[in-house]
Amino acid sequence: MSDFLDLLGLPFMQRAIIAAVFTGLAAPAVGTYLVQRRQALMGDGIGHVAVTGVALGLLTNSSPTWTAVVVAVLGAVLIEVIRERGHTNGDVALALLFYGGLAGGVLLTGLAGQSAARLNQYLFGAITTTSPGDVIVVMVLAAVIVLVCVGLSPQLFAVAQDQEFARVAGLNIRFYNVLVAVLAAVSVTVAMRTVGLLLVSALMVVPVATSQQLTRSFRSTLGAAMVLGTLASVGGLLLSAYASTYARVAPGPTIVLVALAGFVVAWPVGVLLRSRHRLRRPFPVVEVAAHEVIDEHPHDHGKDCGHVAVQHGDHVDYVHGGHRHAPHGRHYDEH
User: Is residue 256 situated within a structural domain?
Assistant: First the structure.
């Protein structure tokens, strides 16, 4: 235990914890909207495209994080354009884009003279190698993502839930769709040093799926997903650091497995909560329309107008064209 505590006091471990906190907040925030739009695997596709951006950074001796951001944003916008046009072969075009991004990244990494081990740091994560500059970039980008996802939550939710309603409400559907795609691309690059480009989609989706088992509103799902994502990121990092004293344990896969373990625990709890809710309210509550008492009937009756006589208590009402006529000046309750 003393070795583990000493490890937590090292600068690289403190930087890793800070990066894990911000990544755990940002990734599920965007993932909530992707799950709502039924695009849970979009983060995985953007991660494939971002590999080319990382390779460009290695080839040009520039920051792989920023080149990955640029390429991932361009790829996300292209994905949204293909999805919006809705061509029959749209899924084929997306597959070509995803696999082309991954293959191009591997090829460019070789041309840059870098080994596969260097690329693996971005494919599967290497949070303990995060530099002070990388931590600042992660903090800034993650803060922007969280502010936009929370600040524009009514508009983003409306577009994700029902685009026709959002269009009638006057929202710019295309703008918000592209905005979600761009946020997803930035979130992927933020999380690539934490869990890796190939596992980033899990950190974006699994905490959201876990929170959906325990919550009933969109706002509570968004908040719970961000909390669960942070717990999974920090918990997985600390667990891998503690286990590293006995064996070689990678932080990225450990974070994903911790997030999956949280879903496994929450799923039966969610089933129990939903069953109890159905038992309390098995049928929807329907309000009974109030009776309205009418003292007079202003309709003039003509001869042989064909009114239908309906027995009503101890007298006869005459029903005609949606009106009831009570003889002898009696009033009645409208049923």
Answer: no
